[in-house]
Specification:
This protein has 239 residues and is mainly alpha-helical. The chain is built from eleven helices and no strands. Helix 8 runs antiparallel to helix 9 and helix 10 runs antiparallel to helix 11. The longest helix has 19 residues.
Length: 239
């Protein structure tokens, strides 16, 4: 992926020279590069790319154009990853109504936008504001994809984390258990995601001083991680 990004980065100057600094083609390429950098966790590099793409789109398009909504959401995701919450919040808030007008209230992009904004609000400690957004995002995902789809599970796990953050352990536990059941069925019992969820459940019981329930969960999580990180031994065979 790094090589592909490097190639695209080299093309930016060529596209700008050929089509101009305010060209939609340049904005498209900036968005592609920025999201590629984001997916590689190169957030500091992604930010100026996506900020410039947004600026070009805002200059050329109507304020409620779908491309502006997508650009706002992409840049906000970078600010969220960088912990720049005060910059991310207004972008997410602007993006959502644009996406709703464009795609309708049940489109997956709305669920993604709601989940992103809820994640930001949770990180800022605005739990009461985050909860209804998670619930709406979960409802959309379950209708669009089904209750056991990875997208639904991601939102459900985020909602469970919110409850755990609030000390609402009796509400968090069944959600984490549902996530665990689906992960074991779809990913297998030895997957690192299963280990992560086991640890989250163990943390809940530990926070409630129920260490007899927490210990086996953490032990199983540790066992999975040890097996997953162990180097494979290749034995040579004689012909």
């Amino acid at each position: 992926m790094d090589q592909e990004l490097d190639t695209l980065l080299e093309q930016l100057h060529e596209v700008e020279s050929e089509f101009g600094s305010d060209s939609p083609k340049l904005a498209d390429l900036l968005s592609i590069v920025g999201l590629g950098l984001y997916n590689e966790s190169r957030f500091e590099e992604a930010e100026p790319m996506l900020a410039r793409a947004l600026s070009i789109r805002e200059s050329a398009l109507a304020v409620d154009h779908a491309d502006i909504g997508s650009a706002l959401n992409s840049l906000a995701m970078v600010y969220l990853a960088l912990g720049r919450y005060s910059k991310a919040e207004p972008l997410f808030a602007r993006a959502l109504p644009i996406l709703e007008r464009t795609f309708g209230g049940d489109h997956y992009s709305i669920a993604a936008g709601l989940n992103n904004l809820a994640e930001l609000l949770r990180a800022m400690g605005k739990y009461d504001s985050a909860e209804p957004l998670y619930k709406r995002a979960l409802s959309i995902c379950e209708r669009q994809f089904g209750p056991e789809h990875p997208e639904s599970m991601e939102v459900l796990e985020n909602l469970a984390t919110l409850y755990a953050n609030q000390g609402r352990y009796s509400e968090a536990e069944p959600l984490f258990r549902k996530v665990l059941t689906v992960q074991e069925k779809t990913l297998g019992a030895e997957h690192t995601a299963v280990a992560s969820t086991l640890s989250r459940l163990g943390d809940i019981f530990a926070d409630m001083d129920q260490f007899d329930k927490a210990e086996p969960l953490h032990r199983r999580a540790l066992s999975i991680r040890e097996r997953c990180s162990a180097p494979s031994i290749l034995k040579s065979r004689r012909a």
